[in-house]
Amino acid sequence: MDEKYAFALRKLALLGAIDDHISISSRELGETLEMSQQSASKRILELLNAQLITRDLGTRKQRIKITPKGVEEMKREYNEYRRIFELTDHLTIHGEVSSGMGEGGYYICQEGYMTQFKEKLDLVPFHGTFNVRIDPNEISKLDVLRSTAGILIEGFSSEGRSFGNVIAYKARIHNVDCAIVVPERSHYVDILEIISPYHLRRTLSLNDGDKVDVKITF
Amino acid sequence: MDEKYAFALRKLALLGAIDDHISISSRELGETLEMSQQSASKRILELLNAQLITRDLGTRKQRIKITPKGVEEMKREYNEYRRIFELTDHLTIHGEVSSGMGEGGYYICQEGYMTQFKEKLDLVPFHGTFNVRIDPNEISKLDVLRSTAGILIEGFSSEGRSFGNVIAYKARIHNVDCAIVVPERSHYVDILEIISPYHLRRTLSLNDGDKVDVKITF
DNA sequence: ATTACTAGTAGACGAGTAA
DNA sequence: TTTACTCGTCTACTAGTAA
Q1: Are B136 and B50 within one domain?
Q2: CA separation (Å) from A45 to A42, A49, A84, A152?
Q3: Does A4 touch chain B (CB under 8 A)?
Q4: The domain spanning residue B8 has which CATH number?
Q5: B81: which chain A residues are within 8 Å (Cβ-Cβ)?
Q6: In terms of domains, do A144 and A61 share one?
Q7: For A43-61, what is each residue's pLDDT tens digit?
Q8: What is the number of domains present in chain A?
Q9: For A19, A60, A94, B104, which has the most beta carbons within 10 A of its beta carbon?
């Protein structure tokens, strides 16, 4: 995205153009962007062309709304700032113990992954995965995590099945070493899958619903 | 700040130029900014001129560090994004009950303020202020709060003393109505001063050090 | 009121090059 | 190798104005 579009997009977002269409004339937009009506009009055409906004052009005033693509572009910039101001040397994600679907456990136990966990993380997973449901307020911390370079656990093929790359992040839960494992090609979910040399539920006496802090170190 | 400077400043920050001087040639900066060496050199001179960065220009490579002013400018942009993505209709600040210095209580009890609290907040403070020490991880939420339009409680003069403007924000602590009061001209502190028609310590059975969630509604 | 075209100007950019 | 000057080009802006 052209950097100059970010400014206009951000000001539109502050006026509420993410949730709804907002009525704003090119003159008014020009005022908030500190430019002429003509330039603001041109900027709107550029944003439309870049598919960052949509517009209803009525006879009176145009109505503008930011597209999902526009929101994504802004989030990218937002996440850069988060990395600058929030990331020191660690990131803490709050959540609660979840029994999850247990699907991750099957993948993680594959020999092809296990050898790499030992080599690259110096960690032999005890048993399956430990699942943490991320506090809804902190889902966006996943963006920050995923924009950070983790440890690449390479995919492989075994018995005609292919297993994809996995990104691992070293972490600690209540001072017990562990690692978060995220399939490289996965949709965002609110569950952190965690491996540890210990049986975390037993070691930390945790049950479903108990609050935990996952501290990722960089 | 010229908007185009923000991009360069942000990329420098991501390279670590907030904490330390970083070695970066104009050619390298040009690569990360996707522009020529010449333009990157010019951009550096502009940033220097705007006092957003400082530079050691050695014989080999220049070393660049972002100034406090530069950091402030970035924070302003960061806070705009926070308002866009973090602020829905409320903001929750975590903290713990603190006995504070009790100074706020004296000011707040002034007749000039009290009448306005009743009119503008529909709230007759019970007694002094209730102090919450903000969780260190959430101090920056104050930036977000202060960049939000609160309710202006006008200053006044009484018995030869002048009392300044105060900004109030309606809030709830564990479902009890209250309001945060912030002197307009004050340095940042980690204490929220809160007024409520109830004696919060007694009503909620709170003692120093107890964790509380302050939910600000907009 | 609007939006947005055209024309003229100021400013941003990169190539060449000096130090 | 550096940084950064000059200069030509090309883009971005605003004023004027049409629809």
Answers
A1: no
A2: 5, 6, 32, 42
A3: yes
A4: 1.10.10.10
A5: 10, 74, 77-78, 81
A6: no
A7: 999 999 999 999 988 777 8
A8: 2
A9: B104
Q: What is the pLDDT of residues A74-112, one digit of tens each?
A: 999 999 999 999 877 788 898 999 986 556 778 888 899
Cα–Cα distance measured from residue B119 to residue B101, given in angstroms and rounded to the nearest whole number: 27
- CB distance A57 to A41 below 8 Å: no
Chain A contacts of B84, Cβ < 8 Å?
A: 10, 13-14, 18, 74, 78
Kindly state the tokens that stand for B5.
Answer: 């400077």
Q: Which of A54, A85, A116 is a domain's end point?
A: A85
Question: Alpha-carbon distance A188 to B82, whole Å?
Answer: 21
B80 in contact with A, Cβ within 8 Å: yes
Over the stretch B163-178, which tens digit does the pLDDT of each residue have? 999 999 999 998 899 9
| Residue B216 dihedral angles phi and psi, to the nearest 5° | -95, 130
* Residue B212, helix vs strand vs coil: strand
Encoded tokens for A13:
């977002």
Mutate: best of A10, A18, A85, partner B, most B CBs <10 A: A85
- CA-nearest residue to A8 within chain B is B3
Give the Cα separation of B101 and B98 in Å (integer): 9
Structure tokens, A187: 């949709």
Number of neighbours of residue A187 by Cβ within 10 angstroms: 5
Residue B87 confidence (pLDDT) above 90: no
Backbone φ, ψ for residue A160 (5° rounding): 75, -5
Q: Distance between CA atoms of A20 and A120, rounded to whole angstroms?
A: 47
Spell out a b/e string for B186-203, using b for 16 or more CB atoms within 10 Å of the CB, else e: eeeeeebbbbbbbebeee
